[in-house]
Amino acid sequence: MKTLLFVVLMTIPLFGSVSSKTQCDGVSLNIDTKWLTMDLECKEKMAAQVQTELNAAMTYLAMGAHFSKDRENRPGFAKFFFESASEEREHAIKIISYLLMRTNPADYLKGLISEPKPLKTEWTSGVDALENALSLETNVTVSIRDIISSCEGGTNDYHLVDYLSGEFLDEQYKGQRELAGMISTLQKMTDGQGVLGEYLFDKKLLNNELF
Ligand SMILES: *[C@@H]1O[C@H](CO)[C@@H](O)[C@H](O)[C@H]1NC(C)=O
Ligand SMILES: [Fe+2]
């Protein structure tokens, strides 16, 4: 984030007593760019992933709000999905930070975040929302694996591949397994007990007693 701040500060026009603009003009900085080794396709896919993570964040935010409604009143689901939304936002920040470390953001930073919006805003039940969350995570995993495929070719960006595998795929696979387990438990509870099953599941989720 320091780099971003630097770029922003350097592009603020100079006013007042400074007589010559040329001394401190960020645009005319002449820094060698050979150290910028990320492939264009790889860089573009990473930039697009920021939007994917933010769409996931917005979808989880919508889920949290949905389960907070008086007609739903499921505080455990609401808490779980609001926390998931924060995690997705953190993922977006991690990818932005990586891009700022490896690339010159002047090329693409303006278009990085356009219109994050939820992919869906209505769910019929807890099981429906969890199944939607699992589908969402499955798609995010496909998207990360696609970045890995692009970046392991070309300039063999093993640092990025290692980062994505270790930091992102690890969390994806654990999260997918967690959601699948939750769907299984909730499905069994509601098959036997109907809405009472969902009510109890929500209480367990709220008090971190599910796992
Ligand atoms: C995941 O991708 C599939 C195939 O493109 C799509 O049908 C589905 O709606 C996506 N899931 C979510 C939650 O967006
Ligand atoms: Fe994510």
List keywords for this structure.
211 residues; mainly alpha; Ferritin; disordered N terminus; binds 2-acetamido-2-deoxy-beta-D-glucopyranose; binds fe (ii) ion
Major sheet characteristics: none
Based on CA inertia axes, which overall geometry fits?
elongated
Number-wise, the strands total 0
Range of strand content:
under 5%
Give the % helix. 55-70%
Q: Give the H and E element order.
A: HHHHHH
> What is the correct CATH architecture?
Up-down Bundle
Helix/strand-derived class? mainly alpha
Q: Provide the gyration radius in Å.
A: 22 Å
User: In the CATH hierarchy, what is the class?
Assistant: Mainly Alpha
Mean pLDDT: 88
Molecular structure report:
With 211 residues, the protein is mainly alpha-helical. The chain has a single domain (39-204), classed as Ferritin, core subunit, four-helix bundle (Ferritin, Up-down Bundle). 67% of the residues lie in helices and 0% in strands. It has six helices and no strands. The protein has helices at residues 2-11, 40-68, 75-102, 126-152, 158-193, 195-206. Helix 3 (75-102) crosses helix 6. The chain is elongated, with a radius of gyration of 22 Å. The relative contact order is 0.13. Fe (ii) ion binds at residues 53, 56, 88, 91, 140.
